[in-house]
Structures are given as C-alpha cells and as structure tokens.
Write a structure and sequence with these properties.
- The complex is a heterotrimer of chains A (537), B (232) and C (332).
- Chain A has 16 helices and no strands.
- Chain A is mostly helical and 537 residues long.
- The relative contact order of chain A is 0.11.
- By secondary structure, chain B is mainly α.
- The longest helix of chain B has 40 residues.
- Chain B is elongated.
- Helix content of chain C is 33%, strand content 19%.
- In chain C, a hairpin with a 4-residue loop joins strand 2 and strand 3.
- The chains are: A mainly alpha (537), B mainly alpha (232), C alpha+beta (332).
- Chains A and C meet through helix 3, helix 6, helix 9, helix 10 and helix 11 of A and helix 1, helix 2, strand 7 and strand 9 of C.
Chain lengths: 537, 232, 332
C-alpha cells in the first residue's frame, strides 16, 4: 500500500491563481508584490543612471541633448527615492518579516496593507506615464519657480504620482505602528524586541509625521502650475524659498526613513553572524528613536545658501551635528558586537561589512556639509552627490541586500549560491567606491551637480566614476541572476539555515499562510546566542 | 496589551464573534488596534493641513493688510452658520456613537442620518460661497480681478489661494466623511452593530470630530482676521 | 597626463585658505575615525572568524562607560568643528565695510555684471587684485546660484530678492564662474569666468568705455520715471527726501523700524504700500513693469550716492578712487 505525502502548505502554494496574489491579505505575499514593483523601479532608475554616467565620460554634452540629460537625472532621482529607497526595506522586508518576528499572524490591518500596495502601484504608473510621455526635468527636488512656472515637462503627472505614492507610505507606517503596539506575542516586551522591529517602529513614526507634508507641498506646487495659484510666485509676492522649507521638512526625515530600516537589518545580521548579543541593545534601540526625532529638526541645512539668516543657519548646523551622534553610537556598538564573536563569513555578513565601511564614509562626510563654512563651497557640487550616494547606496541598499540575503531562505525556502553572493558583494563594494569616491574630489574642485557638460579638467575623475558604475551594474545584475536561479535550482533551506535566534526562524521556510500554528510565548531577549544551544531544524 | 493564550490550532474549530478577524486574538485587541489606527491617521491629517497652515502663517505675517482685506471679502454669516452646523453635526455624531454603544439600532440610524444631513448642508453652503467668489473673479490665477492697488491685488491672490486650498481640502474631507457615514449608516440599518462591536461607528466618529475641529481652526483664521477693526 | 589632473582647487581669495584649513581639519578628524572603525572591523572579522558557524560568541552585552565615552567624545569633537565652521561662515557672509560693488543679474542662461562705473559684461567679471569685491545680485526668472570655486563663495540668486557674495582676490588669473542651482536646459552652460587683474591693468580695462556710471543712469531714471516730482531734496514734497538716507534707520507707519538698504529700496519701488515711512500717506504708485532689474540697481546706486542735504556733494563713488568713496555700510 502506498501512502502519498502531501506537500506542506506554504503561503506560496496555498493558492496559485493570479487573483489569489492580487487580492491577497497575507503580509508575506504583499511583501513579495512590493519586491516585484520595487525591483522594476530599481532597474529603471539604474538604466537612467547608466545614461547619466555614459554622458559624463566626456566633458561635452554629446551623448544626449541637454533636455534629455536633465530628464535622465531627474527620473533617476524620482524613481530611486520614492519608489526604491523609501519603500524597499519597510514594505518588502518589513512586511514579510516583522509580523513573524513579533509572533503575529499578520499586520493589524491586512486589507489596508493590500490597499497600500495598490496605491503604490498607482503612483508608480502615473510616474511611468510621465516618463514615457516625455519625462520630467526639474530634478527630484522640484524647486519653484522652475517647476511651477518654467519647466516644459511632465511636472503635473510626476507630481501626482509622487503625491499618490506618499499615501502608500503613510498607510504602511500606520499599519506597522499599530501592529507593533498591539500584536506582539505574549512575553514579548519592548526590550525583548529584535532591533529590526525597533527600527521599523522609528521609521513608521517618521513616515506618519513627515509624508503628509510632502503631499501637501507637491499639491501646492501642482496647483500653482495648473491654476496659477500664487503661493510660491515671486511676481505676486510669493516666496520660492518657502517651497524649499516645506519640501525639506519631509525630505530630510525621509532620508531617515531610508536608512533606519537597513540599520535594523544590520543589527539582526551582525548578531546572527557573530553568534553574539548586540553590544548595547538599549542604546541601539533608543538611537533609532533619537534619529527619528532629531531628523525633524535639521531640514534647513539644505538651505544654508538660500538666503536664510546666518543665525538660523547656526541653529540648523548645530542640530545637524547632533543628529550624527546617534548614528555614531550605532556604528560603535556594531563594531563592538564583533569583538569576541564567532564570525561566520556568509553572504549576508559580507553586506554588513560593506555597509559598515560605506555608511561610515557617508555619515562622516555629512559632517563636512553640516559645517557652515564648508557647505558654502560644497553645496550643489558633486561632494553632496557622493555623500548621499554613500549613505543611500553604500548604506541603505547594502543594508537591504543584507536583509534580502538573510531572509531569502525564509521567503523562498531556497538557498542561493554563497560563492556567487560573496563575489557580487565584492563587485558592488569595489564598483561603488570607484564610482563615488572620485566625486568627493570633484565636488571640492568645484564641479557643480546636474551638469550635462563640464569643464575639461574634471574628465579623468568622471571617467573613473563611470567605470565604477559599470562594475556596479555587473554586480547588481549578478545578484538578480543567482537569486532568480535559486528559485529554480536552489537547495532546500530548512527552517533555520543561519542558526539564528528570532521567532521567524522557528517556523518552516517558506512559512505557512497563518505563520504560527500556536502563538509563541517569549521569555527571553532577542539575541541570546551565547546562552543557549541553537536548534537547527 | 491583551494576552492571547496558545490560540486555536484550527481557526474555524470553535465559535467566535463574526466580526473578529482571524489575525486578532480577541475582539478587545481588535478594537484597540482599530482605535489606535484611527488616532494615528488623524495625526497624519494634522500634518497634512499643517503644511498649508505654515504657508498661511508666513504670509499673514508678511502681508497683514491683504489678510485683513481678504477676510472682509468672505461672508461671515455663511461662515458662522456653517460653524454652527458642523458643531451640531459633531453632537449628533456623538449621540449616534452612544446609541450604537447601547444597542439602540434605530436611534443610531437616525442620528447618523442627521449627521450626514448636517454635513451636506455645510457642503451646500460652501458651494454657494465658492460660487460667489467665482462670480466676483476672486479665484486666483489669470482671471483674478480686484479693484485696488496692484500689490494688494497680488497679495490677495495669495490669500485666496490659501483660502481655497484650506477650505477646499477641508471640503474634500467632508465629502469623504459623508461617504464613510453613508456606508456606516447602511451597516447600522442592516443591524451589523451590537454593544459588543460597534467599532466602525466609533472610529468614523473620531474622523468626523477631527474634520469639525479643523473647521473650528479655519473659521477664525480665514473669516475673523481683523473683524473688530472693521466693525469699529 | 596624470600630472595634469587637478585634485584640489586653486586658492585665489583670502577666504579660500580659511575654508581649506577647516577642510583639512575635518578631513583629518573624519579620516581618523573612519580608519579606526575600518581597522577594528577588519581585525575582529579576521581574528574571530569561525568557518564552521557552530561556535557561539562571548556573552557580552554592553558597557555603560564605553557608551558614554563614544557619545560624549564625538559630541565635543563635533562642537569643535561646528564652532570653527561657524566662524569661517561668518567671515564668508559678512562683507567688510569697504567693498567694491558690482551688481549682477542671472537669468536663463547667462550672468550679466554691471560695474558702477558703467561697464557691463556678460558671463565675465573683471576685478582688481587685492581689493574686497562684493557682488550684489538677483535673478530675473528662476533660482540660480552664483558660485566661484576658486574663491570658495556661493549664494543662490532668488527672484524678488537680493543676495550677495564677497571676496578679496589674491592671485591674478582667470577662474571658473558657475551657476550652481539647476535652472533648466542650459544650466551647465550658464558659466563664465572671473578675471583678476593687476590694479593698473584693471584701471586700463575700466577706462576702456562703458558709458554712463550706474549712479548717473539711476539719476536719469529718477527724472524719467517722475520720482523727482515727489521726492524733493528738501523734504517738502509728497514723499520723503532721499538725501543721505542710505543705511539710515527709519520708523515705519506701523511702528516698526527698518534699515534703508538695497532690499528696502527695491521693495519700495515695486510694492510701495508695504513699508511706508511714518508721516507719509499711501500715495506712491508701484513701478512694477516700468523698471527692470538693471534699472532698479542703477536707482539704488544713485540713492547711495546722494549726500545728506546740506552737505557738499561727496566725490562720486567710483572704482577709480576707493579712498574717497563714502562708507558703504549696508547690510549684506
């Protein structure tokens, strides 16, 4: 007599139809849906970046016209900021892993979660439409009066796209806040929470408070453009710099939306692959909150040369130095975590090492820009471009890839090739430095940003930068290749291939639709590696 | 935080309240989550209006004469009437929530209908106010006309931009509020609410009160600038 | 080829070396911490490596003294950088009392420079070596930014407002001038050069023509636009006398006080009712549309040149005779 063993029911195979994915309320499926759209946005943003770097290999503007170039860098920024950096870790990894990490069956509002994805896709489609029907050329910062009265590009469409997408961010932040407050498993007190959850919580605070301001600001700019409302029009007595204040009131906290969750990932991965408790847990947890709060107080450091009073500039400069301290605290705590650890060199950890180096440079170069005396020279030069790419790409994206590699086995049940992954991490690290370090030098030399053509003497550094970009492109493509390949041919991962602590590793990979058959009860801290034997399922 | 014990192995194995969603342990937990969610949402709304209010603040300080003049151009009787209407609607809303809480189903429906009627009254009055502005060419933009010095006219355009921005955004929230209430009223009519579970009524009430409070700020900020001066 | 690659900008102003010294300090501090962390990470990653993945790390959870140490020490270092940088900043934005003024307007996609002696240039600015120069500028359309890397100065050009930068050139030569705020299609073409000349060469260049001085042009406009009708010199007209009023504090009808500077004069011509001087009624009409940015700047120069009534006319403010020029103590 034969017995048929039925395949285990997972969130992936429980139902196969397209409708079951597009109407899902499962946070894990929604995380995957976000992964797909964000990856498309990353690809588009990357293609625009390639266009920019090709143009910049020569001093003359000979690859594309000036108008096209201006659209290339604008759309690179718009797609990367709003459709990759802001959502990627919260909406992909946060959605997938956070409820698992707190022992919940789902987020507080699963239907709103699905709604937030649809809102995201709608905003994305508006922006895509803007792209294919001519693009937009205002820079991702949309400064008035250029955006409200002078630009001949698809400002309205893009503005509407950004406006709509903001609501996706707000809904996700709201959902996560309520989930973390109300749905933690019994025994899971705040100070037993994994640091990724703290990071997501702090991020949600920022998403909720800051995003509505960009929505109303872009709305005002669009109304001005469409209907002639005069809020930013100097000809009517309006103040174009008011736009900058309102814009950066969101956009500076937004960069903390982009970096806090990846920092949370780093804490998870570094504890796991050092087999050790995070050094200074409560300091790392509180520093996330400190960054979220202080991040709201520094916006005018983007306006140091825009005509604000020198006394006002002093205040914002001081606060900008202050906000750097919690990030420094985190970095030192992570470094100390490695001390006397048992460091297991696996792909997720390679991304962590890369992050530590690159985020460090990015964060420290922020001090140059916070310094009033230096910012006058450096504002709107390639120094700024290098600074924020070190943090956004060297920090946030690397943190994302650390998390993607860390939770990939949980999400898919498959292992990827570790050697390919290590190679990709190395390529990205080398390519990244080659792309962006020369830009610090270019910036201090005085090369302004958003320049289609540039002065001859800047060429060699630009060529180095473009060469680095091609290595980056190879590295990122390699990641896509081996991850997709693992879906087809990867080894079975098992529940806990990294031998990690954490509730998400106590269930099968991929998890069942309802996550936990029995609600777990928690009675210890998040990273008790040293204390106990780690069960390998 | 409610402590759910080791929960059901089979989600459909035992009876639970029909309104309890499967990812919550208890109705209580679900209710607390919904309420917290609505409060968080209202905070985002404060920030949303806040951007416009910051612009208002800046220009009121820069152009006090235009603010004075612009406020005079608004109809204080209609604005005042609308304020009373909205405050009354908050009262009827609160009474509706109370009725739902006590299981008085028919009373709940009546109070909700009255709230909606008051909300619609507000919107109708707003329509007439906007229409008057249209007729007088006070809509900012290329068709704006105002008799007086050019700079007063320019600054008035900014005032009116903010007037339409603020009241327009508010009116949009009223429309959404009335739509939500129509759904809630229908649900109440279909006897979906009981004293154990009337959460949608309660959180709709929170939303409605918030929209009312926004108007209570907007009315003096827009209609009552320097009125004492004008009267004297 | 390699020797031709510039890696550091020229220092061509007194401010440049100040800024660069600050830069070197911050670089040294940040490089130290960066190296410290990177070296530690590498050492720990290698020294404590466990290829099996089976071992566990030491049961260390934290150290309050370390936390305090690495919060407080970086804070004090940050404050030192903040302090030094702020001092440098105030040097950058506070021009000295006596400067050679040049007016400029940016518009898509060019810079126009107007010397007070009358010469005007497009995308090029001639200045003499060794004298503090102040460029006062605005935009005629969208945001621009005047940036001269060799002097380490930059400020945004904002429509409706005046901005300024100042510098004292220390080296003869030709230096980049860039627009540093994205302004559309030819943003990267809105560039030019600053030509620093020996004082004698500069004199020669100046006297090479240019027509009427700005103040004279301003006087002409003052007549043409009818200002002279109300702003009588003795103060008996419908508007206040403007003689000697530049830089003076006035009380407004609202009770507030204001300093009569470039911005106030421009505002008063374009939106006269906004800040009425006490004792005068709201009768001045607006001249928006009747005078352009260059005209406004000429009028400002004219008003600056008016001596207080009762005093002999001061020598015409001119680039040729700096010692005789009246103190130009206006705000930035």
């Amino acid at each position: 007599m034969t017995t048929t063993v039925l395949p285990r029911v997972t969130y992936v195979n429980v139902r196969h139809s397209v409708a079951s994915w597009l109407l899902t309320k499962d946070h894990k499926r929604i995380g995957i849906l976000y992964l797909i759209v964000v990856s498309i946005a990353f690809l588009l943003g990357g293609i625009f970046a390639v266009g920019v770097r090709i143009e910049l290999t020569t001093p003359q503007g000979d690859f594309v016209s000036a108008d096209t170039y201006n659209r290339l860098f604008t759309m690179h920024g718009v797609f990367m900021v709003f459709f990759v950096l802001v959502p990627v870790v919260p909406a992909v990894l946060g959605n997938f892993a956070m409820p698992l990490m707190i022992g919940a069956k789902d987020v507080a509002f699963p239907r709103i979660n699905l709604l937030s994805w649809y809102v995201f896709v709608t905003g994305f489609l508006f922006t895509l439409t803007a792209m294919v029907t001519g693009g937009v050329d205002t820079g991702w910062t949309f400064y008035t009066p250029y955006s409200s009265s002078a630009s001949n590009s698809n400002v309205m469409l893009t503005g509407v796209g950004v406006f709509i997408t903001g609501f996706s961010s707000i809904l996700t932040g709201l959902n996560f806040m309520v989930t973390i407050h109300r749905m933690r498993a019994p025994g899971l007190t705040w100070f037993r929470l994994p640091l990724f959850v703290w990071a997501i919580y702090a991020t949600s605070l920022v998403m909720i408070l800051a995003t509505p301001v960009i929505a109303i600001t872009v709305g005002m700019m669009a109304l001005e453009r469409a209907l002639g409302f005069g809020i930013f029009d100097p000809r009517l007595g309006g103040d174009p710099v008011l736009f900058q204040h309102l814009f950066w009131f969101y956009s500076h906290p937004a960069v903390y939306i982009m970096i806090l969750p990846p920092m949370g990932v780093i804490s998870e991965v570094i504890a796991c692959f050092s087999r050790k408790n995070i050094f200074g847990y409560s300091f790392v947890a509180f520093s996330s909150l400190a960054i979220a709060v202080f991040g709201f107080l520094v916006w005018a450091h983007h306006l140091f040369v825009s005509g604000i009073s020198p006394y006002s500039a002093m205040v914002f400069s001081f606060l900008s130095f202050a906000v750097a301290i919690p990030s420094a605290v985190k970095t030192f705590n992570w470094t100390a975590t490695l001390y006397q650890g048992a460091i297991w060199w696996r792909a997720p950890m390679m991304w962590v090492f890369g992050f530590l180096g690159l985020f460090l440079v990015g964060g420290l170069t922020g001090l140059f820009l916070a310094s009033l005396g230096l910012d006058v020279h450096l504002h709107d030069t390639y120094f700024v471009v290098a600074h924020f790419h070190y943090i956004m790409v060297g920090g946030a994206i690397m943190g994302y890839f650390a998390g993607l590699h860390y939770w990939w086995p949980k999400m898919t049940g498959k292992m990827f090739s570790n050697s390919m992954a290590m190679l990709a991490a190395l390529l990205v690290f080398v390519g990244f430095n080659l792309t962006f370090f020369p830009q610090f030098i270019l910036g201090y030399l005085g090369m302004p940003r958003r320049y289609h053509a540039y002065s001859e003497e800047f060429q060699v550094l630009n060529v180095l930068s473009s060469a680095g970009a091609s290595i980056l492109a190879v590295g990122y493509s390699l990641i896509a290749a081996y991850l997709l390949y693992s879906l087809w041919r990867g080894e079975e991962a098992g529940a806990n291939p990294w031998k990690a602590t954490g509730l998400e590793w106590q269930i099968e990979s991929p998890p069942p639709p309802d996550n936990f058959a029995v609600t777990p009860i928690v009675n210890e801290g998040a990273y008790e590696y040293s204390k106990r034997e780690i069960k390998v399922v | 935080m409610s402590n759910g014990l080791a929960a059901h192995a089979d989600p459909h194995g035992h009876a639970h309240h029909p309104a309890l969603q499967h990812h919550f342990q208890t109705l209580d937990q679900q209710h607390e989550a919904a309420t917290l969610g609505m409060w968080v949402f209202l905070v985002t709304e404060v920030m949303f209006f806040g951007g416009l209010l910051m612009a208002y603040l800046l220009y009121r300080v820069w152009y006090p004469e235009a603010w004075s003049e612009g406020s005079l151009e608004l109809d204080i009787r209609l604005g005042g009437f609308n304020t009373v209407v909205l405050i009354a609607s908050s009262l009827t809303m609160a009474l509706g929530v109370r009725a739902a809480q006590t299981g008085a189903q028919r009373t709940t429906v009546r109070w909700l209908l009255l709230t909606m009627a008051l909300g619609l009254t507000f919107l109708v009055v707003k329509f007439f106010e906007y229409k008057e502005k249209w007729d007088l060419n006070h809509i900012p933009g290329p068709n704006f006309v105002f008799e007086g010095p050019q700079e007063m006219s320019d600054h008035l355009q900014i005032f009116f931009s903010l007037y339409f921005g603020l009241t327009g955004l508010h009116a949009l929230h009223m429309v959404i509020g009335v739509s939500i209430l129509s759904v809630i009223t229908w649900m109440a009519h279909r006897r979906r609410f009981t004293p154990e579970w009337y959460t949608p009524v309660e959180i709709s009430g929170l939303y409605w009160h918030f929209v009312d409070i926004v108007w209570i700020f907007l009315f003096p900020l827009l209609y009552l600038v320097d009125r004492a001066h004008q009267l004297g | 080829m390699l020797s031709g690659i510039p890696l550091f900008p020229e220092q061509a102003s007194t401010l440049a070396s100040e800024v660069d010294n600050l830069y070197f300090f911050v670089t040294a501090v940040t490089a130290f911490f960066a190296l410290l962390v990177v070296v530690l990470v590498i050492i720990f990653a290698v020294k404590y490596r466990d290829p099996t993945g089976e071992k566990v790390g030491a049961p260390i959870t934290g150290s309050i003294p370390l936390e305090l140490g690495w919060s407080i020490i970086p804070f004090f270092i940050s404050m030192a950088i903040f302090g030094w940088a702020t001092i440098v900043f105030f040097h950058l934005v506070r021009a000295p009392d006596q400067t050679l003024e040049v007016y400029s307007t940016g518009k898509r996609w060019m810079w126009r420079f107007q010397h007070i002696d009358g010469q005007s240039e497009i995308n090029q600015l001639h200045v003499p070596l060794g004298r503090p120069v102040k460029v006062i500028f605005t935009s005629e359309d969208v945001l621009h930014s005047l940036y001269m890397p060799a002097f380490r100065v930059k400020a945004d050009a904002i429509p409706g407002r005046y901005s300024s930068v100042w510098f004292t050139p220390t080296k003869v030569g030709e230096y980049h001038l860039f627009c540093a705020e994205y302004c559309g299609t030819k943003h990267s073409g809105m560039i030019g050069s600053v030509v620093v000349m020996e004082p004698n060469d500069y004199q020669t260049w100046l006297s090479g023509g240019g027509g009427m001085s700005m103040a004279a042009r301003g006087e002409q406009l003052f007549q043409q636009l009818g200002c002279v009708g109300c702003h009588l010199k003795d103060g008996s007209g419908r508007g206040p006398s403007l003689a000697g009023k530049y830089g003076v504090q006035e009380t407004l009808a609202s009770g507030a006080t204001v300093t009569i500077d470039d911005t106030y004069i421009r505002e008063s011509i374009l939106t006269p009712q906004m800040k009425l001087v006490a004792g005068y009624g709201p009768v001045m009409p607006t001249f928006q549309g009747l005078v352009n940015e260059q005209g406004l700047m000429s009028l400002i120069e004219f008003i600056k040149s008016l001596p207080p009534s009762g005093q002999p006319a001061a020598a015409q403010a001119s680039a040729a005779a700096p010692a005789a020029a009246p103190a130009q103590g206006g705000p930035r």
